[in-house]
Amino acid sequence: MVQIASVLGASPLNSCVISRRWQFDSLFDGFHRLQAISYVVSPDLLLAFFEGREFDEIEIVVGENLTEQYRQTLSQKGQRVTQALAELVEQGKLRIFVPKHTIHSKLYILWTDGLCRVVQGSANLTETARRATSQVNYVWYGDFAADDPWLRQVLDDYRAHLQNCSLFMGDLVELFRRRPEENRGDLVDAWLKGRVTEDDELGEGRFLQQLTARSLESLDEPDAEPVFIVELPDAPKMRQRLESRLATLSPVVTGRQMQVNAANVVRYVQETHNIPLMLVDLTDRRLLVGIDSAALTRSEPPSDAESVDRALQHIEDYVNTVDWGRSLDPRFAKTSMFEALLYFLAVPFAHEHMKVRRRRHALVDSRGPQVLYIFGHAQNGKSTFLKFALHLLVGRHVAPIAGAQFSKTRIRAAAALGSAFPLTFDDVDLSGKSKPFEEVLKSHWEVWWREDCVFPQIVLTGNTENFKEWAKSRLKRIDFDVQFAPNAEQKESLNRILEVDNPLFKWFSFHYMDHLARGASPGEDELSIARSVMKHLYGHAGRALPPFFPEEPIEHLYDPGRRAWQDLLYSLRKASATRDGTRRLITFKEDMQHPEIRAYAGHLPQTVKHKVKGKTIVIESPREFDEWLGSNGNGRQHWPARLIARIRGK
User: Fold this and answer.
1) What strand order describes the sheet that includes 137-145?
2) What is the CA angle 65-71-73, rounded to 5?
3) Sign of the alpha-carbon torsion through 594, 595, 601, 606
């Protein structure tokens, strides 16, 4: 081995048998720019040239177009290596080219301060070649002046290898450019797993939305042909994916045309995604549901007052089943259940609400309508409620999706169908799904949503009691604070209630769409239109609102977290409050465990700044804490002032 020639007239050619790691490394010492051809490349070794050797620029041609294999290799290395390499590509420091045809050449051209080293031999740019523990390689190399005639010939040969090559990772860098608001780690993860790009997703979504809408309209119109033709996209790969995805429909494909049966499409969606199709048409005040190979009309003007009255009575009969259970506050439990019903009645219109939100607040707030989370422990009626609510929407019995099936992949696949029907997951164990839950909750409306592709809302039930701050603002949590242990007679009565085909949603959806068509928007209270429509129906029936009707958001009327804190401090007396300068210290009894303490911290609203220190919660915004705690938790703001004074006075 010899070092870089200090005198240009020195002998230009040298040879080296690489049987030790230092021999490989010394070939690259002292240089800062590399042009290379290597049959295979180690991603982490490439990164080491920048991070360890501080190279300024690398351009490399890999020997064979093994794009998917390289992608899999990067996936094994993890997001950090891939993201770092992609950002080097983005900065113009790294260019990786893949050829159309196999290239077996190995050539390395290194540069520094007007001097160039050319290395040619058997070694690939891999960790295996570098370690030299399982293989021996042989190379020759020479150092040349930048204007050397022979070097110019080598550079011409190198450029000849670049012909018909394409840039690897260019599509990932393009994703970075087009989606600057999205977390780069998420984009890298999507790219590594070979998911389609944004344009492909939109193209497939538009096609599927056209397919499902045409299917519902064909089944709804008596004179329409049940078999119709749709045009497949131009992109060959996209077309291939769609043909594969829809193979169970047994379509007839001729060139770019696909002939399908409308009933088969509805059946496919129901069997594959466990949901019916739902189409909202504001112009005609029409809402269609595709289920059991048929299209059902689920919107019409209200019937006579007596029919509306019977429908409302049926709703109240269901809500009053709370009286069969055990609850510390039955009225709170009933109000919560009615609020959840209002949410379900309005949920098909979430996409329409999102369009309004984006037009009004896109530069300030990209979040979408809040996802419903129904909280409660075992036997509190969550699953039965979902059956009742879904039956109300469809007019037929529809089972919710099992919570174990909650995943980003499932949600994205269902969302691509262009259906407004809510994705309802029952009994989701979020303790084992924290990463997909966070990604879905942060991305469903804020990143994945597009105005021209109808998106469904998400509904969850579970018994996870506390959430991080980012989740609290994206969830509408409703507590079902009741426990059922029904006897045989009550079970029979409940079964009769669940069997009733209540037409209320038809009338509700007609008026709701009328509000939307006339420019109404929900505002801060996302259920404001739902409350207004429901009051109108009560008025139409000449029926008084029940005492548990939520006139305003449930979180304004009842705060379970506040009730828990008041119980903690004033009834159970498991914690005491003391003043520490401008802070308030909530010190818990010795028998209180840390998970219990953190649960209480999780009950605090976002306005109350706090920290957990051992068995003490440090309240850093005591005024906001006092104002929040100063209610008895049931909406009547007359909790005795002495209780607040009791905290402030210490």
Assistant:
1) 13-18, 137-145, 115-121, 107-112, 33-38, 57-62, 94-99, 165-168
2) 105
3) positive
Cβ–Cβ < 8 Å for 629, 612: no
Q: Which two tokens stand for residue 448?
A: 């994945």
Per-residue DSSP letter, 147: T
> Where are any strands of DSSP class E within 507-556?
none
Q: Taking the mean position of all CA atoms in its chain, how far away is CA 399?
A: 23
Q: What is the pLDDT of residues 477-507, one digit of tens each?
A: 999 999 999 999 999 999 999 999 999 999 9
Q: Which residue has the tokens 């351009």?
A: 59
Q: What is the 3-state secondary structure (H, E, C) of 149-180?
A: HHHHHHHHHHHHHHCCEEEECHHHHHHHHHCC
Fold classified for 198-273: Arc Repressor Mutant, subunit A (1.10.10)
Taking the chain, what is the end-to-end CA distance rounded to the nearest angstrom?
A: 79
| Alpha carbons 524 and 552: distance in angstroms, whole number | 11
pLDDT in tens, 88-129: 888 889 888 888 778 888 999 999 988 999 999 998 888 888
CB neighbour list of residue 460: distance below 8 Å, 6 or more residues apart: 371, 372, 373, 374, 403, 406, 424, 425, 428
- CATH 3.30.200 for domain 297-546, yes or no, is no
351 exposure class (CB count in 10 Å sphere: 0-12, 13-18, 19+): buried
pLDDT tens string 277-294? 999 999 999 999 999 999
**Cβ-contact 597, 617 below 8 angstroms:** yes
Residue 404 DSSP code: G
For residues 108 and 41, give the distance between their C-alpha atoms in angstroms, rounded to a whole number.
Answer: 13
Provide the CATH number for the domain formed by 13-192 in this structure: 3.30.870.10
Q: How many CB atoms lie within 10 A of CB 501?
A: 11
Domain spans in the chain, listed from the N-terminal domain onward: 13-192, 198-273, 297-546, 559-648
304: which 2 tokens?
């006579």
Q: Which of 113, 153, 149, 141 is nearest to 6 (CA)?
A: 113
Neighbours of 64 (CB within 10 A): 16
Q: What number is the average pLDDT over the span 263-278?
A: 93
What is the Rg, in whole angstroms, of the alpha carbon atoms belonging to the chain? 32
pLDDT digits (tens, 9 = 90+) for 7-63: 344 457 899 999 998 999 999 999 999 999 988 788 788 888 998 888 999 999 987
Counting Cα atoms < 13 Å in the Cβ hemisphere of 90 gives: 16
Helix or strand (DSSP H, E) at 108: strand 107-112
CA distance to 14, 129, 316, 464, 558, per residue, from 548 (Å): 90, 75, 9, 26, 12
CA atoms lying within 13 Å on the CB side of residue 151: 21
Virtual torsion, Cα 185, 186, 188, 190, nearest 10 deg? 160
Tell me if 397 sits within 8 A of 291, measured CB to CB.
no
Q: Can you give 38-62 as a three-state secondary structure string?
A: ECCECHHHHHHHHHCCCCCEEEEEE
